[in-house]
Amino acid sequence: MTSRFFSGLAAKAAEIVFFPAPGSWPRLALCAATFALWFSLAAFPAHAAVEESPEGALNRLYNYDFTGAHRVLDAWNAKHPDSSLGHALQAATFMFTEFARLQILEGEFFTDDKKIVDKKGLKTDPVVRGQFYGELDTARKLAEQRLAVDPKDQDALFVMTVSEGLLADFDALIEKHPLASLGYAKDAQTYAVRLLAINPSFGDAYLTTGYSEYLLGSLPFFVRWFTKFDDTEGNKITAIQKLQRAAETGRYLGPYAKIMLAIIYVREDRLPDSEALLRGLAAAYPENPMFKKELEKISQYTQKKKKR
What we know:
Blueprint: H1 2-18, H2 48-51, H3 54-62, H4 66-79, H5 84-101, H6 113-118, H7 126-149, H8 154-174, H9 178-198, H10 205-218, H11 221-224, H12 236-249, H13 254-267, H14 271-284, H15 289-307
Helix pairs in contact: 3-4, 3-5, 4-5, 5-7, 5-8, 7-8, 8-9, 9-10, 10-12, 12-13, 13-14, 14-15
């Protein structure tokens, strides 16, 4: 009876975090210690060495060019069969292809509960689902092999952090298993903490620890005391500081940290800060229509707020 009671509380908490009540715009469902990568990178210079690298693939992904991202990663993985990062990025690309097809990245999905109900009939493409899990399986196996040789391998720890975050996002937003996704999120946090203990200057890892901090701080008080993340107190100020550090110093996840901050700033009623971040992202990635759409929504939201 007790275990069922706590499971019910945890499930309810996951619903509140991933699918909160109407009016809590925007939703914090873009999650997962990547949780989820809206996988990204800093604005890389446009030259051949970058275009043919994981950074170039991320640039294509972040510009909503999924086919281009796959093309770059296919070539990279063929030349670097031991690259766990390349396979993790392939998985990210498959995931965001599904996000786009299912319209999960549309802002209305995160603001209107009816949209969630309307989309319940949409199912993930079984072929893409298999490709996503296949690429992640390869990425994790390659990273685990390196960790077996050197438990302090920073690149391998980073790939494990990213992989668990991707699993959390896919499970929460596509598979609709928010409770199970919290387990992956906790694993991502554990890897990120290990990585930062070895190298406190690994900027990308602060995205995971910052998000975990904010996630825990957003849980209802009656759930927080038995939901434990490594090295996390649920302090939202600390969360924002860590995400800001990721935004400023992250090699791969800097812009994703900016996206997370833009979401959090709206939740914390810091609309000018959110708008400034989105304008920078829209300028850096002009092929991505989502930033412009979200800027327009912030403008509309601001106008409605002024009229109240």
